[in-house]
Specification:
By secondary structure, the protein is of the alpha+beta class. The chain is 19% helix and 49% strand. The protein is built from 1 helix and 4 strands. Strands 1, 2, 3 and 4 form a 4-stranded antiparallel β-sheet that branches. A hairpin with a 5-residue loop joins strand 1 and strand 2. The protein is flat. The relative contact order is 0.19.
């Protein structure tokens, strides 16, 4: 009889929330990195979802720079996929 074991997997995510001023206008986006440890059986079934915890300090992206951030997030994977990295 073969013993099957469970493994722990670290799941990293990002929590993005709006930042508003006193008048209710959107001024920035706050980005917080999160992590949780999920227990998974050898067959891939989730045994324990785990609890989500914040990792490090959140950072804010001013609303005027969100389009620049989105452009950079799209450009870098394309740059590497086309082989221009070397």
């Amino acid at each position: 009889m073969r013993c099957r074991m469970a493994i722990d997997r670290t799941v990293t995510g990002f929590d993005v929330r709006p930042v508003e001023n006193d008048e209710g206008n959107l001024t920035a986006l706050k980005v917080q990195r999160t992590a949780r440890v999920k227990r998974v059986s050898a067959t891939g079934k989730t045994l324990d979802y785990g609890s989500t915890n914040d990792v490090g300090e959140p950072f804010e992206v001013p609303i005027g720079h969100v389009s620049d951030l989105i452009r950079e997030l799209a450009d870098w994977p394309i740059w590497y996929a086309t082989g221009k990295d070397g």
